[in-house]
Structure formats: structure tokens, C-alpha cells
Amino acid sequence: MEAAKADVKNYWEAAPCGTRDTLDVAEQEQHRELERMRDEREPFIGEFARFDETAGQRVLEVGVGAGTDHLRFARGGARLSGIDLTEAAIALTRRRLAMEGLGSDLRVGDAEKLPFDDGSFDIVYSWGVIHHTPDVQRAAREIVRVLRPGGRFCVMVYNRRSLVALQTWIRFAALRGRFRLGIRAAIANHMESPGTQAYSADEARALFPVRDVRVDTRVTAYDLRLARRRFLPRWTWSLMPSSLGWFHVVSGTK
């Protein structure tokens, strides 16, 4: 398990999530480009994160990545904490906050062993992160543990029954004559960091040990990609059933 986690850490240490298309630009330009890409490719994030409703609330982000969502929580006035498995993500997020005179309790940490007491937060947010850790169930339990009673969580995980998952299987299994390789294995071996997992809606819901859990599945630019940085126009998203979208957004109340 620890070896698998080390592989995940090494992958993301090389480039925090969302930065691989911006590594060759100056820092100020990277800052703007990261925000632009976030809005272009995942324009519905604000609907779930509700950045402007977090003033004065204790918010934890599990897996800060490039720091774009963390920055928006800070702008909203949240009492903010964040962890990431990698030093690179923490350093980048800290620099981006400093550029706007904002701050956060940022720590290198493990989603499976959150360094906080029970009931520490009003909101726990994690976007596209815990499906990369070896023990996803444990990370989900940790999110619930550090949430206060009545607090809310919002977690995005990948959808195994999606167009992206099917494309991954076709590319890395079917077209190579490896028809017995399942979709789970194709995603684990070829989607981002080693061991990446994806879930049905029911499986995503079952990760979280609370009664009030909702799963919203959303189409993104990644579902309609033509090349690494070329996507079909946004109006085409409505032509695709939402159930085939790559993102499950799991939210609920403790």
C-alpha cells in the first residue's frame, strides 16, 4: 500500500494537477491560465463548491492541487485549511495565495490519515483527488470524521460508466487486442497516476457513511476531447447524456 502511495506521490510531485499544460509559462501568466482553464473545462464547480457562501466557515480542502479552488475559498472569506500529498502542490498554492495577500493553514498530508481532530470543519471539499489514493474508502471515512455534525462535504470522483472510461478501455485494451482487460484495470494502469479508480453512482454514494448523500454526474470538456488541448464547443455537451459524464459529484451532510 505504501509503495502504491509513493507512486502516486511521485506522479503528482512532477506536476500538480491541472498544471501540465502551463509548465512553460511565467508564474503570473500561469496563475491566470489556471483559472481560465478551470472555468472553461469545469464551469459548474462553483455550483457545488459554493465559494461565496463560505465566509467565516471552517473549510478543509483535501488535495489542493494547483490551488485554484483553494484560492476561491480564500477570496470568499473561509477560515481555510488544505492538505496535499505533494510538496509541489502546497508550495504552488501558497505562492498563489500570497500573490493576493491571502492565507491558509496548508500542510503536506495524507487523505487517508487527515491530521485534524474529529468534527473540526464546517465544510470538507475534495475535487478529483481521493480516487487516486490506494484506500479510497478510508479517505472517504476520514472526510466524514473531521466534519462537524450538520457540516457538508463535496467530493468529486470519476465515473466508471462514462464515455471517458470507455475511450480509455478502447485505446489501451481493445485496440491492443487485450479484450480481457477490464475498464477498471485500464483506468488504473493508464489514467493519470498509477492505481486511479472510478465508480458507478451507487458505488460512489456508498463510499460515504452518512444517510444524506447525493450524486450528480456531469459532462465536462474532457468527455468531448479532440486532442490534449482541443475540445468540442460547450454547446455540444448538452447532446451527451449526463449519466455518461466523467465526473460524479458526491455531496452530503453529516
What can you tell me about this protein's structure?
- The chain has 254 residues and is α/β, with parallel strands linked by helices.
- It has one domain: 3-Layer(aba) Sandwich (Rossmann fold).
- Helices cover 35% and strands 21% of the residues.
- The chain is built from 9 helices and 9 strands.
- The strands form 2 sheets. It has a 7-stranded mixed β-sheet.
- Helix 4 (68-75) links the parallel strand 1 (58-62) and strand 2 (79-84).
- Helix 7 (163-172) crosses helix 8.
- It is globular.
User: What is the name of the CATH class?
Assistant: Alpha Beta
Q: Indicate the overall shape.
A: globular
- Our count of helices gives 9
C-alpha Rg, in Å?
18 Å
Question: In which order are the strands of the major sheet placed?
Answer: 3-2-1-4-5-9-6
* Range of helix content: 25-40%
Quaternary organization: single chain
- Which CATH architecture would you pick? 3-Layer(aba) Sandwich
Write the element-wise H/E pattern from the N-terminal end onward.
HHHEHEHEEHEHHHEEEE
Looking at CATH, which topology would you report?
Rossmann fold
What is the residue-averaged pLDDT?
Answer: 95
CATH superfamily: Vaccinia Virus protein VP39
Q: Characterize the biggest β-sheet.
A: 7 strands, mixed
Structural class: alpha/beta
- Taking pLDDT < 50 over at least 5 consecutive residues as the criterion, the unreliable ranges are none
